[in-house]
Records
---
Amino acid sequence: MVKYFTETDIGIREHFDFFGEFVVSPAARSGDLALAYGLRLEAGEEGLSLAELFDKRSDSQEQVEGGRIDIGGFMLTAKEVDGGGNIGSMGLKVLR
């Protein structure tokens, strides 16, 4: 029984290590997140949704779960992606 809880704890930590400490909505405005967390955005990115920012900065044409972009000291990761490549949720990880 103790082994089960230990493995679960490790799994949760690995999940946070990969996806980040926070779950954010892809519909959230990039400028709001930048203001709240001190993210550095390029000119004109403040009005983009996080999904739009992700698409703009990503090297991939089609988004997949686990895809990532760096936003000046933070990592934004696609946590859930549907069959059409639409991001359902994202993780935000502080890299500093």
---
Amino acid sequence: MICRSRAGRRAGAVVLVLAAAGCTEHNAMGTIEYTTPAKRVVKIQSPSDEDCHQMPGGAHQVTNYTVSDIRLYANDDCVLTKAGDDQSGRTGGESFYLGTQMSVEFTPGQTPWRSYSVVGGGG
């Protein structure tokens, strides 16, 4: 009976750990870091994967230290390029796909990135 009791406690602990892990699936675990045109460094810790996130002042350089890929946009609304529609049918603005643990810098003549969304997020 002692073995069953320990096994039951272990099973309960595993369920509890899995349930807690399920709660964290709504965040891109890690940090997104960007530099504004004014050279200010901004760090965002574990952003929600269900929202469009604005980058006030824009970003000339972005590093994705999260476990999720992100998409950068040249507008405040997280919409795709002028040639494409997003899931809600909106159009306009440039976009750039930035993989996990990757970095991208501003190209002269480019519009600063103004928002981002987590790839696979609900927003």
